[in-house]
Backbone:
């Protein structure tokens, strides 16, 4: 349907395993002075982390994203987070978007994923946008993050502003009519929530709205605007995308 909201896709359990198989290609490819890039994660544990931007970091292989954050225990890389600078998101949010996150099987359940997200928020002072898809574990991690003191989590929605859209001007009258109906419906949903306008990028207007965890604490929800949708590898998105997702801001010290 034209104008249908595109939510974060729920990746089925087992579809993305990650772990040491993915970590190993970076673990064996550190530069000779890799230790000089490490910083302590906190005063109370033996974990250290690095932030690599482009080629500036301990990994000599071209990373598959704009930014890579890694956590080490001793000399062992035990988890990493790949981040992209989003193509379209209000600049004042200083947002980075999750591309990939994985943790060694030996270290799962110890808060490593949450620590990787925390580096973005509390040390880099960037806001963090959810990826376009999440595993069950990823969705639970975002529930956990929402409970961290200093973290403010919101849903976000981007919708087309026809007045600023070249694509809109190229539409047929019938397509404009159908799209306008969808836009009206989405804006009514936004008006019935506590949605707040946070800025525009090109022809897209961005809003944030409150979210909370579901009863099972497996994912974040909003009673009016959906955050998640079932995974469908055959789904084709419109060139004019209305999207919802999650965004975290840091207000702590």
Residues:
């Amino acid at each position: 349907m034209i104008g249908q909201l595109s939510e974060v896709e729920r990746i089925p359990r087992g579809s993305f395993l990650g772990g040491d198989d993915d970590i190993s290609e970076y673990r064996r490819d550190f530069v000779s002075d890799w230790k000089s890039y490490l910083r302590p994660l906190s005063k109370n544990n033996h974990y250290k982390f690095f932030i690599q931007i482009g080629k500036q970091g301990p990994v000599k292989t071209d990373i598959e994203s704009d930014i890579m954050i890694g956590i080490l225990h001793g000399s062992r890389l035990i988890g990493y987070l790949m981040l992209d600078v989003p193509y379209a998101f209000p600049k004042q949010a200083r947002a980075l978007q999750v591309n990939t996150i994985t943790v060694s099987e030996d270290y799962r359940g110890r808060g490593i994923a949450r620590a990787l997200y925390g580096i973005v928020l509390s040390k880099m002072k960037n806001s963090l946008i959810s990826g376009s898809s999440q595993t069950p574990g990823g969705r639970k991690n975002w529930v956990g993050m929402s409970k961290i003191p200093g973290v403010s989590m919101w849903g976000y929605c981007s919708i087309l502003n026809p007045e600023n859209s070249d694509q809109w001007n190229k539409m047929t009258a019938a397509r404009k009519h159908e799209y306008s109906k969808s836009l009206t419906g989405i804006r009514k949903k936004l008006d019935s929530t506590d949605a707040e306008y946070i800025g525009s990028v090109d022809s897209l207007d961005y809003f944030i709205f409150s979210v909370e965890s579901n009863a099972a604490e497996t994912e974040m929800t909003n009673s009016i605007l959906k955050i998640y949708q079932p995974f469908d590898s055959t789904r084709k998105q419109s060139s004019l995308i209305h999207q919802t997702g999650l965004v975290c801001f840091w207000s702590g010290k």
